[in-house]
Amino acid sequence: MKRLINDIIKVVFPLVLGAIILWWTYRDFDFSQVSDVLWHQMDWWWMGLSIPFGILAQMFRGWRWKQTLEPLGEHPTTKHCVNSIFVSYAANLLIPRVGEVSRCGILKQYDGVLFSKSLGTVVTERIIDSLCVLLITGLTLISQMAVFNFFFKETGTDMESVIEKLGNKHLTILAISAVAILIAGTYIIHRMALFTRVKKLLNNVFEGIFSLRKVKNMPLFILYTAGIWISYILHFYLTFFAFGFTSQLGFIAGLVLFAVGSLAVVVPTPNGAGPWHFAVITMLMLYGVGQSDAEIFALLVHAIQTLLIIVLGIWGLLSLSLEKKMDLQFKQ
C-alpha cells in the first residue's frame, strides 16, 4: 500500500504542481487571442524550420549514449539508442525523470545491456549536461549584463522596482518552484540512500559514471555534445522569427531566454510546464515584450515543442514494437 501511494504521488505531484503554476501564470490571460495568433499571425515556416533541430538534438543524444556504453563492453544498436531517447522524453511528460529509467530498460530488453551500467552512463550525461547549462547560462548572462544595466538606467528602475513590476504572482511562483525543487531533491537523496545498500548495483553504476574516461573517440563525443546543445538552442531561437513581437530580439537574447528556461525545467513538472512559462515570460518582459505577447509566445512554443516530443515518443514505441513483432515472426 505504501509503495502504491508513493507511485501515485510521483505521478500526481508533478502534474498538480505544473497545473497550479500554469493556472497562476495565466489566470488573467485572455485565451481568445491564442487562436488568432496561431492561425493568422504566427509564421508557420519559421516554426516548422525549428522542428528538425528538436529531432536532431535527441538523435545526437542517442548517438552519444551509444558511444559512452561501448567502453563498458555494451554494444546496443544505434537505432535502439535513438528510439529509447525518443521514448524517454515522452515518458518524462508523464512522470518527470522516469525517462532515464525507461530508456535503460529498453536497451536491456532489446540489446541485453546491463541496466545498472547504462544507468551510470545516464548519470554521467546529466552531469555533463548540467555543466553545459551552467556554462551557457554564465556566459550569456555575463555578456548581457550591460543590456540589463542600460535597461535599468534608461527606465530609471532598480532591482526593487523590477520585483515590484513583476508582482506578487511571480514571487509566489518562485516560492512554489523553490519548495518543489527541495522536495524533489530530498526524494532523490532518499532513493540514492536506498541504492547504496546494494553494493553490486552501486559498483556497476559507478562503472557507468566513469566510462567517460575510456571513450575511444573523445573529439566525436565533444562534437555530439556540442551538437545536442546547438540543436536545442536553434530549436528554441528560431521560434522567435515566427512572431512579430520577438523577431527583433536577436540571438543573444535568445540565448538568455534559453538558459533561463533550461534552469526552470529543474522544477519537477512535465516538460517544465509552468516554471518554464514563468521564466520565459518574465525575461521577455524585461526585454520589452508586452505581457500578453510574452504569454502567447510561451504558451504556443511550449505546446508545439511538447507535441513534437509526443510524436517522437510514439514513433519510437511503434518502431521498437514493430521490430519486436518482426523478430517473433522470424523466429516462428
Order of helices and strands: HHHHHHHHHHHHH
Q: Label the overall shape.
A: globular
Fraction of residues in helix: over 70%
- Structural class assignment: mainly alpha
Give Rg in angstroms: 21 Å
What's the end-to-end separation, in Å?
41 Å
Provide the β-strand percentage band: under 5%
Determine the mean pLDDT: 79
Low-confidence regions: 154-159, 192-201
Helix count from the secondary structure assignment: 13
Count of extended strands: 0
Q: Main sheet? A: none
What's the short version?
With 332 residues, the protein is an all-alpha fold.
Describe the structure.
By secondary structure, the protein is mostly helical. It is 80% helix and 0% strand. α4 packs across α13. About 5% of the residues have low confidence.
Topology:
Layout lengths: L1 H25 L5 H10 L2 H26 L8 H17 L3 H14 L3 H29 L1 H11 L3 H37 L3 H11 L8 H20 L13 H14 L10 H12 L4 H41 L1
Helix pairs in contact: 1-8, 3-4, 3-10, 4-5, 4-13, 5-6, 6-9, 6-11, 11-12, 12-13
Features:
single chain; 332 residues; globular; mainly alpha
